[in-house]
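STRUCTURE:
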């Protein structure tokens, strides 16, 4: 679940939001909790044979965890994601804060690389593969999906869930 951008507090002094959360540490804790819950659901869905649902939950778990890590290391990302972004509600926010709050799928790999955590980078790669699988399903020829069998999907779902559990407990 992404943080609604509409909740961003505007600071009238310079008309640009100072940060997307009233309490950055609370936001981080909430995103870590979200990651744990999503990983648990991924495992449950997988056990119940709902493979595409499991893939989607594993992806969401990594996305939430990545957002929490990005919030903790905002300073590392601020140089790369400089400037201001205008939200769909017309609010001006620091681009880095928008990236952290929304964690767009198109930026997940880049954010993980900038954070410099190799295990996180691998988890993000698996999550992106699972996200793609969630929409495309299996492809025995490997043309539209990286997965050619359910067993390999299951291994990645469980691997992501273990990673999240290890990082959030």
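SEQUENCE:
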């Amino acid at each position: 679940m992404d943080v609604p951008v509409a909740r961003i507090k505007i600071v009238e002094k310079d008309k640009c939001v100072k940060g997307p959360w009233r309490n950055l540490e609370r936001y981080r804790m909430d995103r870590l909790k979200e990651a744990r819950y999503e990983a648990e659901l991924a495992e449950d869905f997988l056990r119940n044979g709902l493979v595409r649902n499991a893939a989607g939950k594993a992806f969401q778990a990594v996305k939430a965890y990545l957002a929490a890590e990005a919030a903790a290391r905002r300073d590392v990302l601020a140089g790369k994601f400089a400037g201001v972004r205008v939200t769909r509600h017309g609010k001006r926010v620091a681009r880095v804060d928008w990236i952290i709050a929304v964690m767009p799928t198109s930026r997940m790999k880049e954010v993980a690389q900038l954070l410099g955590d190799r295990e996180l980078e691998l988890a993000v790669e698996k999550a992106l593969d699972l996200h793609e699988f969630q929409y495309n399903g299996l492809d025995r020829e490997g043309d539209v999906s990286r997965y050619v069998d359910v067993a390999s999907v299951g291994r990645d779902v469980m691997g992501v869930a273990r990673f999240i559990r290890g990082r959030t407990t």
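REMARK: The first helix runs from residue 24 to 47.
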